[in-house]
Amino acid sequence: MFSILRRWGASSSYQRVPGGPEAQKCSPEKSASFFSKMTYSWFSRIIILGYKKPLEREDLFELNESDSSYVICPVFEKQWRKEVLRNQERQKVKASFHKEAHTGKPSLLCALWNTFKFVLIQVALFKVLADILSFTSPLIMKQMIIFCEHRPDFGWSGYGYALALFVVVFLQTLILQQYQRFNILTSAKIKTAVIGLIYKKALFLSNVSRKKFSTGEIINLMSADAQQLMDLTANLNLLWSAPFQILVAVSLLWQELGPAVLAGVAVLVFVIPINALVATRVKKLKKSQTKNKDKQIKLLNEILHGIKILKLYAWEPSYKKKIIEIREQELEIQKSAGYLAVFSMLTLTCIPFLVSLATFGIYFLLDEGNVLTATKVFTSISLFNILRLPLFDLPTVISAVVQARISLGRLEDFLSSEELLPQNIETNYTGDHAIAFTNASFAWDKTGIPVLKDLNIKIPEGALVAVVGQVGSGKSSVLSAILGEMEKLTGVVQRKGSVAYVSQQAWIQNCILQENILFGSIMQKQFYERVLEACALLPDLEQLPNGDQTEIGERGVNISGGQKHRVSLARAVYSGADIYLLDDPLSAVDVHVGKQLFEKVIGSSGILKNKTRILVTHNLTLLPQMDLIIVMGSGRVAQMGTYQELLSKTKNLANLLQVFSEQEKAHALEQVSVINSRTILKDQILEQNDRPSLDQGKQFSMKKEKIPIGGVKFSIILKYLRAFGWLWVWLSMATYLGQNLVAIGQNLWLSAWAKEAKHVSEFTEWKQIRSNNLNIYGLLGLMQGLFVCSGAYVLTRGSLAASRTLHAQLLDNVLHLPLQFFETNPIGQIINRFTKDMFIIDMRFHYYLRTWVNCTLDVIGTVLVIVGALPLFILGVIPLVFLYFAIQRYYVASSRQIRRLAGASRSPIISHFSETLLGVSTIRAFAHEQRFIQQNKEVVNENLVCFYNNVISNRWLSVRLEFLGNLMVFFAALLAVLAGDSIDSAIVGLSISYALNITQSLNFWVRKACEIETNAVSIERVCEYENMDKEAPWIMSKRPPSQWPHKGVVEFINYQARYRDDLGLALQDITFQTHGEEKIGIVGRTGAGKSTLSNCLFRILERSGGKIIIDGIDISTIGLHDLRGKLNVIPQDPVLFSGTLQMNLDPLDKYSDSELWEVLELCHLKEFVQSLPRKLLHEISEGGENLSVGQRQLICLARALLRKTKILVLDEATASIDFETDNLVQTTIRKEFSDCTILTIAHRLHSVIDSDRVLVLDSGRIIEFETPRNLICQKGLFFAMLTEAGITQDSGTKK
Asked: Quick count: other Cβ atoms within 10 Å of Cβ 1119?
């Protein structure tokens, strides 16, 4: 069957994951013998190796070629494309009949069936054989009981029956394990195929679809919904197998008990509709549950990406409350589902009893002469026991179908959602221009308001073009239109050649720096070094611990903002494209670096001098260097032409230049041919708020997920039991003990009943005994039902308590972790704990515990019953139990570690996916979609390798355990034959029927013990953050007065700080004091420690020595929230959360609407917000993507104005807005915060020059601290910086 897949996948050759030859351990399965394949003996070397040492990824066997993502994904994508085309044809036919448009979706189920049908048929054949063999055992047992009743002369037939029983159960074991292996691996293939398709779709989503499906929802589709399809596939054969087994069992029961069996069938028929009703209710609950999970992951994803803002504003409790509210809704649904599970448990346990009670009762009523012999009783009971499994499976498979239907709907919605239309832009243009717009209008969605209107632009090849304008005028949108990222409403857009794109917010991959720059291109050493030099990266490489081999963290956390932009620019330059779209890359670097970048990269003498370059900029002094200037206003081209043309034609450009002082303006107009450092760019963002320079040693890379080794400590299980609640633990134990005792009592009673029937002579006496026996049998069943219901209720209550407690602890621990943790650990790892690990705790772990307890009690009861019947059985049990434990001991060591490796290999899938979604515009711009699809296949394949090894290890165990169980059956049967006339046939029936059950019970017992240990890894991972270093407490016993700080006096006394104990000091002997209401500018060159200083003020970074005193209170003696809640900050990164504009301004809901409008007016946003249809209730998309970066920055300013305190820290606060808006903002800050102490971390120097005093830092020390006038007179470092920036003494300095 696999040959079909190989043939289909021939065009896509199987590729090994990079690694040394020793790391590529090809699976020996293909070359193994038939016996070795059937018993999985070829896998024994991994089991033995795992027992000797903790397994590592390199120790595992590689996948068979047909099981790899490299083969599966292309085959499935081909079938999906065919299904999409078929669906289009169907819709055309329907539309022609109904004369109206139909919007039916292509069927994911059909595509999956067409891809995997041959493997699924193969799996079904194994299942048929296993089911047929399962019914052979009771028939052989029947012959054995008959043999024991009559004891013919030819005693050898008894041995024949015993041997036949052993052969049948052993064959059943081998075939069932083959079925399990192919079934589970096929389900994993289906999940792999779906994940590949989701990833590919995400790369091409239109803006409308991106709004509809948030990052959290798409991740949930990959993790939860793809998993549901996998679960359905694993249970798929039960849809026909369960009815088939029920039908065969009923047919065989008819032979034993005649028409009476119809009573049992009637019970089944009665129960199935009730199960269907329960399943319908479960479907509704699961749908609601999925929505809540989406909400939680979406919010969590945003919280983790914006964790710095939460910490600076002390908003953690507010967002924690939001997560817990969603979680409580989840748990309410889980509780309802748990109570419905009570019915399922009742069905599983009591239906076989009710069926047997109804059948036996009607059997007696049909003919008063009917007698229950041992043959009838135990053959019937064995068949009833076989009935238990399909009856247990039916609710499971119905639930899986229900879940899969919901998931299929969600996946089909996503996979059928709008993609970016290739016709938005013509890329095969061969005209005279590099880019041409003709009467073009664009919107972010087809039905939306046009964002760009009536564009008529012709850009010649090799031209240097500037796009300028105010915040929100449509500058970045012009670049998006060129990239084809916007929906074209009218007109024509044409583009010639390949594109390289540098986004306004630099996107950096979690890989080494060299790979970030090469971006999939071949290394050309000479050109590469030239690019590094031109992009001013060589000094940075000297400081990085491993040069260009240094691993860059997720979202570039271990490099500065300026470095991120330069790496992003280097990536574009190295690509060798024809057209370069540069979205304000120079605003993130300091003056001299900006000059170098323009001269050596962008300008007329730079590397790109012969390329078409379109530069969005707020730096107006660059305009004289431009071949063409496009001035944007309200989404239209306000003016267009060369610098001189615009100056002569209109005052528009001159109006823009009014933001400069008269002297600066005059100087800028004179220097039309030379770019100089007076660009008044903001100083380089080396420390992105909390980052020191690299030479200060914050030289960390992303931590790989720690994979624990050795056994899971019992303390982890105890932690779960404590969260479960000891009351519920003991009640659970009591109910399960009672349940098992009653079940044993039922079978012993039937045995005694059958034995009694042989010795009753008088009909009337038998009639009386029969009536009493039936009553007692019914009473025992009723007791069992009560125990089952009580047990299920207790389990639901306890598991809910455990889920609530462990989730709350995890959330609390994560929010209390210091900021550096989030910078060095991929967010995928953290989200994985809230999704996959919490799912196991919520839904799986308590089930495994319950099953293990039940199996333990069942095994003990079974052994006691058989030993009671056949005392010699103890001689066979002891060595077999010893072997059981030996096999388990070998297996658990390997299985546990393979499961851990599988858990760790899931995080990179989520991390890579999240990273892709963040940088999707860049990936599309460079046309690297196929390369990223290939990378996704690689990370999925790594997870598949671990999963494959895990599946095979489980099958290895099952074959061996079931073989030992088969020996127990054989031993019990052999003892029954050897016992001769000394044993009653009823006892033979009882012991063999129990022996047949012990195989399954013992297998389940060992498997569930292993499942508990391997799944306890999830509890271990959830509790992992408990023992990590946390931030100081949010609230302490010593609290500052409510009016503190009332003056705003900040004093640093001999203050020292370092990022890690093994690194040097980032700040050294910092001592200074501000006055109340003083305006302090903090300046310094790259890596001076400016942002480190502000981090220390907020205690993002704790002291190594000295202290900070604010208005007489040492800040280290109060809680973090008492401190941070009394400080104000406008951060460098404008972070917004999805939700309303009102929620983003005021998440704690403390201010009135009038106050919100007031601050919006002060931030020059009132007009914009009033133009929105829902005004304050306007929905902000994830990460604020439906606003420009400048608008986001202004909203952050509005937040600060609402939260007015005596101390304000400005950290590069106006980096993303134009000069005119910056000027207005600076005026607002001066006016509204006139009675506050303001600490301004150096951004555009013209806004620092009018400070009361300026603090100059260098290498973590204070070099100068004086008024600007005095510092200029001293001609020190500050004077040198001003000179570089071209600011003179008359630029507004204070004396």
From this structure: 19
Strands 452-460 and 612-616: unpaired
CA–CA dist 632, 572 (Å, integer): 25
Q: Are strands 433-443 and 487-495 parallel, antiparallel or unpaired?
A: antiparallel
Q: Classify the phi-psi angles of 247: left when phi > 0, otherwise alpha if psi is within -120 to 50, otherwise beta.
A: alpha
Distances from the Cα of 193 to the Cαs of 76, 115, 1150, in angstroms? 6, 10, 48
Cα–Cα nearest to 964, from 1085, 877, 842 = 877
Report whether 1236 contacts 1205 (CB < 8 A).
yes
Peptide bond into 1045 cis (omega under 30): yes
pLDDT at residue 653 greater than cutoff 70: no
| Model confidence at 670: pLDDT above 60 | no
pLDDT at 171: 92
Which tokens belong to 300? 């969590």
Highest mean pLDDT among 671-675, 730-734, 861-865: 730-734
Q: What share of the chain is helix, strand, coil (3-state, %, to 5)?
A: 65, 10, 25
CA dihedral sign of residues 838, 839, 842, 845: negative
Cα 1244 from Cα 805, distance rounded (Å): 49
Confidence of residue 580 (pLDDT cuts 50, 70, 90): very high
Using the 8-state DSSP alphabet, how is residue 1084 labeled?
E
**Is residue 562 a contact partner of residue 691, using CB atoms and an 8 Å limit?**
no
**Mean pLDDT (the chain, rounded):** 79
DSSP classification of residue 1026: G
- What distance in Å separates the CA atoms of residue 1196 and residue 1128, rounded to the nearest whole number? 11
Cα–Cα nearest to 614, from 506, 468, 492: 468
Higher pLDDT among residues 216 and 495, named by residue: 495
C-beta separation of 1180 from 1138 below 8 A: yes
Share of the chain above pLDDT 70, in %: 85
User: Which is it for the CA torsion 761, 765, 771, 776, positive or negative?
Assistant: negative
Query: Whose CA is closest to 113, among 229, 244, 281?
Result: 229
Phi, psi for residue 99 in degrees, rounded to 5:
55, 30
Partner residues linked to 1057 by β-bridges: 1067, 1103
Output DSSP code: residue 1032: P
Overall pTM > 0.85: no
Contact 1186, 1139 (CB under 8 A): no
Ranges assigned E (strand) in 1205-1260: 1207-1211, 1237-1241, 1253-1258
Report how far apart the first and last C-alpha atoms of the chain are (Å, whole number): 87
SS3 for 1065? coil
pLDDT of residue 769: 56
Q: Give 25's strand partners.
A: 61
Amino acid letter at 754?
A
Q: What are the backbone angles phi and psi of residue 100, rounded to the nearest 5°?
A: -150, 155
Cβ(1214)–Cβ(681) below 8 Å = no
The yes-or-no verdict on residue 1266 having pLDDT over 50 is yes
Single out the residue of 1086, 1071, 1239, 1229 nearest to residue 1159, CA to CA.
Answer: 1229
Starting at the earlier edge strand, list the strands of the sheet with 1050-1057.
1067-1073, 1050-1057, 1103-1110, 1113-1114
Name the CA radius of gyration of the chain, rounded.
37
Which is more confident, 812 or 994?
812
The pLDDT value given to residue 1215? 53
Residue 842 has what DSSP assignment?
I
Q: How far apart are CA 1095 and CA 1102, in angstroms?
A: 9
Q: Could you say which DSSP state residue 1077 is in?
A: T
